[in-house]
Amino acid sequence: MSYQSLITENSAHIAAHNGTWDSISAESVARMQLQNRFQTGLDIARYTAKIMRDDMAAYDADPAQYTQSLGCWHGFIAQQKMISIKKHFGTTKKRYLYLSGWMIAALRSEFGPLPDQSMHEKTSVPALIEELYTFLRQADSRELNVLFRDLDDARSQGDAAREAELMGKIESHETHVVPIIADIDAGFGNAEATYLLAKKMIEAGACALQIENQVSDEKQCGHQDGKVTVPHEDFLQKIRACRYAFLELGVPEGIIVARTDSLGAGLTKQIAVSTAAGDLGDLYNGFLDCEEIDPATAQNGDVILNRNGKLLRPKRLPSNLFQFRAGTGEDRCVLDCITSLQNGADLIWIETEKPHIEQIAGMVDRIREVVPNAKLAYNNSPSFNWTLNFRQQVFDAWSADNRDVSAYERANLMSASYDETDLGIEADLRIQNFQRDSAKRAGIFHHLITLPTYHTAALSTDNLAKDYFGEMGMLGYVAGVQRKEIRQGIACVKHQNMSGSDIGDDHKEYFAGEAALKAGGKDNTMNQFSQAA
Fold this sequence. Notes:
Shape: globular
Oligomer: single chain
């Protein structure tokens, strides 16, 4: 509803109470209503799910219309990210949030820092979703508050043109609330546990749930060893659980991202149930590393498979896990993706060991033979050494083209001595274009970086600590932080305003009128930054 129509509606409500509400300002109520556009997490989930669906359709029509996100481990980080995006690009369109289970484990668990093995409290996931959206809604409220104050100032000065301009900005205000792809890990238990957690995540505002095909009780980070997958039907039960949660809560457009870790997972805990040759269970078991045996040599405790009239014994480790045949990872990934998309998933996620476009594209080509509009969310992971990987890719490509690479040592390509060389420059260009090129070639609809703000927090803190506690002293903060904030127009240089102090002052005036005791008077030191933000 528009600002003007809200004022009109509120005026009617106030007038209907025979003078007893006359001290209430219809315009002030309209402002508070606009500042509280999303009243529940489900409002957010429904709104953002439609955005994602529209963006997916736009990508299908033109792969240049891919989307992006950065992982955020705190609401303030998410808020500042979206404020920066609006400042630099004028819109939040096609920019999302990503919630990483890795970062919750490492930074938000009550147990303290944990590895990415689903040991953190499952309740911390919806709690962070709610926190992220609380901060994004506050960003809306703050930005609108600035417009409202400017509007009042234009009116007091009789500047009709400025007033009309500001009214236009208020009516066309774009929210900071954007879709979030939220990591539900491997579901934190059986399908019922997955369903219960999915509901909490959706109720907190998540429109997209990312779930992986590892065992939930021994889940590992996608870039670590020791990953164990589950049979397809077990995973499909959890996909269905997520869909039921979306439908029950009235979010039919909710997105399910099915992640496969099969490329790096060489183990399974279970032999799949198979009732007929060629069914999903049989296909899964067909990847197992087996040896043919004579019934007479079968040993106590052996698990025996009957395939094509032959008795096969899967190789079982002392851990009671079964191993897959080497070299089957890509085939298993392709089957995982196809079955997920055929059973309710909307996007797929293939966790790879390196960022190589043709490796991803080779699997996507095979998937699209069965599901033509298959699309990926892809982890542009900090676990990859991007510099080394792409320099080696360029080195290998040049070698294959018989170009002279004698000036380069492949094993040492990370060296800073290669930064300004032709090879280093070419590798950086490929990194710069990776998202665009892979969106076009490899079906990647959504590019995300899982842990970027984990690393930026560490890097910026290291730089500040080095300078402030060293010889630069206070200049380390002033030159390295505050002066840059001022000159780059970083809004939170006025940290009292960012935390909501001015909004609180306006509320005091709504409630108490001239008796309001405000914090933002002439003696507020934030006035020193009046030209900064």
